[in-house]
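Subject: complex prediction, re-run

Hi both,

The earlier run crashed halfway through, so I resubmitted it with identical inputs.
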Amino acid sequence: MSIPPPPPGSREPNPHLDPGSQEPNLGDTSAPVGFDVVEEENPRTDGNIEAAENAIELKEVEGLSQGRIVWRRFVRHRGAMISLTVIVLITLVAFTSEGLSLWGIRLPGWWPYDYTQLVPLENRGVPSWTHPFGQDDLGRDMFAVVMRGTQQSLMIVFVVGIIATVIGVVIGSLSGFFRGWTDQVLMRVTDIVIIIPLIVLTAVLGRKFGASGAIVLALVLGLASWTGLARLVRGDVLSLREREFVDAARVAGASSARIMFVHILPNSIGVIIVNTTLLMSATILTEAAIGFLGFGVQPPDVSLGSIIYQYQQAFDTRPWLFFWPALFIILIALTINFIGDGLRDAFDPRQKRALNKAARKSAAAAREKAHVAAVAERDAAARAESKP
Amino acid sequence: MLTFLSRRLIASILVLFVASYIVYVLAATAGDPLAELRTSTARNKQALIDQRIQELQLNVPAPLRYFLWLGDAIRGNLGTNLQGQSVNTQVANAAGVTIQLLTASLVLAVIIGILIGITSALRQYSGYDYTVTFLAFLAFSLPSFFIAVVLKAYVGIAFNNFLGAPNIPWYLLIIIPLVLGFLWMGIIGGVAKTRWLVFGIATVVSFAVLLYIDLTNWLNYPGLSIVGVGLLSLGAGVLVHLLTAGSGNKKSLYTAVTVAVIGMAVYYPFMLLSDRLNLWTLLLLGVVAIVVGAAVGYFFGGHDRAQSARTGAITAFLTGGFIVIDRYMRAWPVYTQSSYINGRPIGTVGAVTPNLAEATSSFWILSLDSLTHLLLPTISLMLISLAAYSRYSRANLLDVMNQDYIRTARAKGVNERTVVMRHAFRNALIPLTTIVAFDVGGLIGGAIITETVFAWKGMGDLFNQALRQVDVNPMMGFFLVTGAVAIVFNILADLAYSALDPRIRVTV
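This time it finished cleanly. Structure:
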């Protein structure tokens, strides 16, 4: 058995092949390189490469806090970063173009038309330079309408996200921490809400409160969407409360509330953040669905779902009335989903893929080296066999 | 076990009661049930309003009215809607329609979702995997009405127009084979040489098939004939054999071939008899086919009879399926050219073509009519669940493949097929039972949207109309049925889980 020289051009240190390397190494460094031959058929489970990737990752996160590690991993998730940019852009454009009108205060935006304003029809309302999203049959500028709808939908999504998270986290941690009858009661309450299909509950609530404005609608939708999070947080707290640091805190005299919110909750922040994100992407679809049925935000105000409901008859003649709001719903949902995925990867301690480009390159180089070594070994074995 | 079941059931029913109270009060106070009468111009307006208040006991406040409703509901009477029709019959009719839709979507979503999930897990981090992942994310982010409306306009209506002059444009003749070629290349994988070979073969074969379809006007006059059925059955048999038994077991291969030959032998007798069949006799024939297939495998014997029997049963089922598909293809020209259809077979409105049932009693025509109407709503309803199942089964399989016992299996020299199919695949499916059961509730919610777009008179439509008119009784009928379905499926999931996973044991 001979260790083949590394192929020319690859300068990355490989902890296995380079005995002088100071990389921390989780793998079994004493195993001869030639052993890789056995596992050559499945390079993904190759111990050598896994160890190399571990080593690279450990090197990378040396001396960083948990928060920094998560942040670094998240920033590296390309899909999540693109999505974050897109959603920030959408939010900025939606809120600056149409301006804000909250509690009587009116801040005008840069877009010349208002979403309620009737402008003379140009060319049957087909999208043009003056009206990039077209006009409806009454002459409303669709860009203004869609931007206002986006504002309202985004607002609903964030309010629902906050309310559902607060309720879900409180109920989940109370129930997981105290167990016993508290748990029984709270979980039965959760069951009661869960058994009503979400769209049924939200549609009924929308029918009841839709006319009271988007904020009220957002509040009641938040009251309906916390159940999934409550169950997940409960599960997490149930396992965390058995850990040593909780015992330590208790011995040190911490109160239940302190243990719950200062010691346990920060440890389940990953579950909470990830699921809040996914809940928000589900909320935009739920809002769109009940809006489509006509139970969401009521005119004269609009949300993305209610725009589609208003113009669904016009689909064959004026498809832009349908496709622009639909495109924004899809964009918002897709970007939030990707951000959620990025966050999940970032919080997952088993995650090994979110390495940066250099690390991926050196992992690829390690794989290449292992492969070359394996081939050379096989050739050597073949030669040895032919010349006994 | 019985104690566990009864406890679960009682707890669930209590939960359902409380939930129904909440829904009742919310729904009854969601708007004004007299709105339509108040704006009417009838001369006896006040009398009509008084009559409706009397009939629906609207003078009783909603939190109390619930108990009046509950008293009737326990005796099996769900009351009447605003128009005075019995909710019981309404729910029964609507449920029949929606069950078709739900079953079709659920079955297809599970099968296709698992297939996609397993293949993308086995080809993790390949181009195919990334494509599937992105498409799944896209499907998660599509509002269900968007899928439905787009399918209706750009698939249903466009395909119907296309059938009028079925010439496949040249660019599709090039693009579709290329896409299919990449798909097969991604699924089969391997080294560069294999991949290009697969790509080439798949592209050329799909191009030839498309050209054949185009030149022979196959879409209007489809048919497999005995040759096509025979080839498909043989192919399916060999595939089943390779997946379930592996190339080592010759008896299993003989079984697959024998079953395919038997299928060809019964082809003409079946076609002769087919006009006298109905749904039940057809299902019975399906069971007979499975039994015959299993028997063939059993009598071939060998060291592992059960394996051959399984190959035989699955092949027989698939062969039967191909024969039935061919029978439907024979009915297709008759169906599309009838005056009710007028060459526009893909239904976009309603669950059946009106008046067709009076015109013909042929089982094949009528069920074909149901199938063409089911097609688009099923696709639009299944897409989101499909994406979810494919993600879950991918994650589960990846999880299982990293377990120690898989390493053990590999270490003792078990081949890759056995590792995947026998050790990993089955265990990866266990957690899926729970997810599928939970998802049934979500599907019912999706059906509300899908039925609105495709104008089906099902449960979703019942709910939608009831909520619009603040009509509490049909709404509660809807809720009771969906709630009961959700409870039953959750309990089934628990039972299935404890039956499938010996580590989970029900303790009281």
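The CA atoms of residues 73 and 429 of chain B lie 39 Å apart.

- K.
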